[in-house]
Sequence to fold (427 residues):
Amino acid sequence: MAKKDLDSLFKEKLGQMERPTRPEAWQKISSTLAAQDHSRRKAGGWLLWSIAASVPLWLSLGFWWLTSYRLSPATSVAKLLPKQEETIAPQDDATQERQSPRAMNQPERKKKELPKKEVNSLNQEEKYKNQSALQNQSLVEIRPRQVQPSLPGPDPKIPLEFPLPGVLPEENKKEDAYRIVVTVKLSPVGQTPILAQNEDNKPKKREGKIWKTLKNLKEGLYPDSTHTDEEGRKLWASIGKK
Amino acid sequence: MLKWYVQQDLARQCQQGNPKAQKMVYERYAAKMLSLCLRYVPRDDEAEDLMIGGFLKVFQKIAQFKGEGSFEGWIRRIMVNECLNHLRKQRWLYATSDLPPAPEMSQTIAHDYGAEELLALVQDLPTGYRTVFNLYAIEGYSHKEIAEQLGINENTSKSQLARARALLQKKLQQHQDKLNQVKHG
Fold:
């Protein structure tokens, strides 16, 4: 009797051993596989159907969001303005924050607790110190209006400025002022001017003076008046009607 | 045994979900896999259930087969894992405690045994011995791999294998003695 190694004997005999199976085994396997495939296809169909159904929903949501975003006043203006990072213009140095001398003037606060009286005196000193700095900063030199002395000529011009509501000025529409140049004939020293001799021209009140001046202009006493445009004429006409 | 390219083609057809290819694979390897399961689980119905569960896993995870090795070897490994998982669930693998290594015996036996007789001898072994012997002697696992698969020590695997060999040799000797008595008597 030939003798052989135990492991190799079992491996040789049992490794390639075949035991016939029952046909019911394949039925079980095929039915299970078919059920799994059916459930997988069903799940895939549901997934596809849900995706297809969600497309119009997402589209409507996106349309609503876009319209609401564009129609909102804050975003509509902001979208028109270019972003600062996207502009190619160099950054303006004036926009950079700088440390003001007022901030540099702040004294370092001492954390050490002092008696109340000393603290008050210290605060008072700081207050005065800061106030003086503020006063120096806010000091503005106000110069008196320089009036150029000039020799009286034959036709000196004195500008008069007064507001006229309802009348648009020609030169500067923002300022509600009206400029009329009035020619005054000056008399020699010691004599009363011609206008002063007229009682109607006395400055009883401001409106009377204005009306008198306008009346003189209408009568042609001041031919150098620069107000000769259409609006002036209309003004005169309205005054005459009144 | 099927040629390599036939195996690869079958695997590719199964990956595409072809039912005919799946049935061909089953018909080709089912008998072998059932005998494999019978080596680990003696009961026929249990072994068949394990074989069915193994084939279901084969067809479910067929996409993981990259074609780098033998398709039959890949199926066999799935079947072995299925049997080991079943044994783990039954807690048969944890019944054996650590044993000292058994003394080496002369591993020479008579040669004229059939597969069914040898299968019966293996099935008579205790579960732990049988599992280690199957994995080491027939499947070709190392002790390290067996220890990792079963969650035991390598020395435990070696001792279980030695005891399984001793038991098998003893049973073979008894069987030989019976045959001799029949012949002479």
The mean pLDDT of chain A is 67. The longest strand of chain A covers residues 157-162. Residues 157-241 of chain A form one domain.
